[in-house]
Please model this.
Amino acid sequence: MRIDIVTLFPELCDSFLSASILGRARAKNLFEAHCHQIRDYTQNKQKQTDDYPYGGGCGMVLYAQPIADCLRAVQAQCAAQGRAKPHVVFLTAAGRPYTEADARRLAQYDAVTLVCGHYEGIDERVIEAFGDEEISIGDYVLTGGELASLVVADSVLRLQPGVLAEEKGYQDESYWDGLLEYPQYTRPEVWEGRAVPPVLLTGDHQKIDAWRAAQSRTRTRLRRPDLYARWCETHPLTPLPKWKRGENARLVKNDDQWQAAAALYAEGLRTVCADVCTVAYLETLTPQACREKLDAERRGGWAFYLHYTGGAADGMVGVCHKTGEIAHLFVAEPARGKGIGAKMLDFARKKLAEHPHPTLTVLDANTRALALYRRMGWRPAGVAAVYDPASDPTAAVYTQELRLRYEG
Ligand code: SAM
Model:
């Protein structure tokens, strides 16, 4: 790939492209970069590059002519190398916002030319005549386009084969899959009293990947709800899994069933609360305590259903016909990942046919469930409860219990 930067400060841009990872890649000819001085293309004696704006106003505007001639020279150089006409990008504060998707798109071109404005900007006519697009690197104004062009050049060039040591280097990073990256740690294990999350020291890569994926989803949901909503939409659920032979759902009626439901409830609750509640609280989540809670809820109008696979209870869900609520959707550990949760949620919603918009609650830390619910048509409808370690002795970290409403 060839990158050209058209600027009043070519040395500044060149020194950046000669340093560190990009500098090493450039020295190995993994890409070509050329920085051009706009002033060299002026036609006046003073080598003046700018003038007052027509119509008045403060500041100066860059002439069209030297930029146009510089772009023509770049086109000629590309043609002499047998390259296609370069894709021309003007860096402007009023351009389209730049994203990782744009970096990936621009990385596909054989030649990209980045044009930097200065002062009040550039004569619009040269943008119209030569520009393929205008890009802004953010909603703020810089004094010149050099930093913006280097942001674009850096994000595009690092995607060129061989520039980063491993392709995985960028595939794991923020925005690649539409999510922000998980937090990173290095030695020492404990720094100023802060320990590295224990899961990262286990050497169990399945667990580590699962932890990192959950961190990514949580961070994105909390910091960038816009990205998270888009990610959920673009990761649609495969069609609802079909009920298999030997699989069914039964109303909890007899004592064995109540015991099975209480055990599933206790195990499920401990799993979802593991990262957000204190150890002391987790220890109170026994099948016995859960059985008492289920009994109280039954008296309050709730009905519970168990999911059976070949006669063994491995999932549960509760519904309340009075209020249109769904709760306690849990699947036993060995039965997870088989679509039982999705099937039971669909089953519960259909049980509440008289409520077109049933509700349920979920901890904000349970991002896997949140993503599933979202893809099944459930949408946020407020915060049902807040667990704050400052006021709640059962809470280990600040957590919200979110209410979701079925919107179909
Ligand atoms: N008068 C312009 C406006 O209000 O949109 C701002 C001109 S700015 C002071 C000078 C140059 O900096 C621009 O021509 C552009 O090349 C660059 N620039 C400033 N902010 C930028 C941004 N957010 N993204 C990309 N380029 C920017």
Notes: The mean pLDDT is 93. The pocket of S-adenosylmethionine is lined by residues 91-94, 116-118, 120-122, 136-138, 140-145, 148 (CB under 6 Å). The longest helix spans residues 205-223. The first strand starts at residue 2 and ends at 7.
